[in-house]
Amino acid sequence: MPKRLSFRSDIPRKRRALVATAVIMAILVAGLARMAAAQPIGAEGQAVPAALPPGPGHDTVVRVCSACHSPDIVATQHLSAAEWRNLVDLMVRQGASASDQEQAEIANYLTRSFPPNPPISASRPSPSGS
Q1: How many distinct helices (H) and strands (E) make up the chain?
Q2: Same domain? 64 vs 104
Q3: pLDDT one-digit tens code per residue, 27-83
Q4: For 47, which DSSP code?
Q5: Tally of structural domains, the chain
Q6: C-alpha distances in angstroms, 106 versus 16, 26, 71?
Q7: Separation between Cα atoms, residue 109 and residue 115, nearest integer Å
């Protein structure tokens, strides 16, 4: 009766390791390529967040906020002008480096770009359909 060969015994251990490494590298390269394609590069070589709309203060937000976190995180928040000013003030107290003028520019940009969401009840149609 002939000896039955298994996949593992057919391919030497070193070759299996090389193939596995090549597959992992291909996956990593493909993932990095997708990330690079999704993040346009700005004038200073930094990734430009797609979620931040253009406008006065955009570049300041990207420069100051990205020192600690992704500036895209602000796109998930919708605050009032006072809440944005308080949040900018908190970030400066925690180490963000921005002049008083830059802080005002950031707060104004965020207030314009990410205002509070309307109340849920105001956006829903009434049950009667009117």
Answers
A1: 6, 0
A2: yes
A3: 766 665 555 555 444 444 544 445 899 999 999 999 999 888 888 888 888 999 999
A4: B
A5: 2
A6: 53, 40, 11
A7: 10
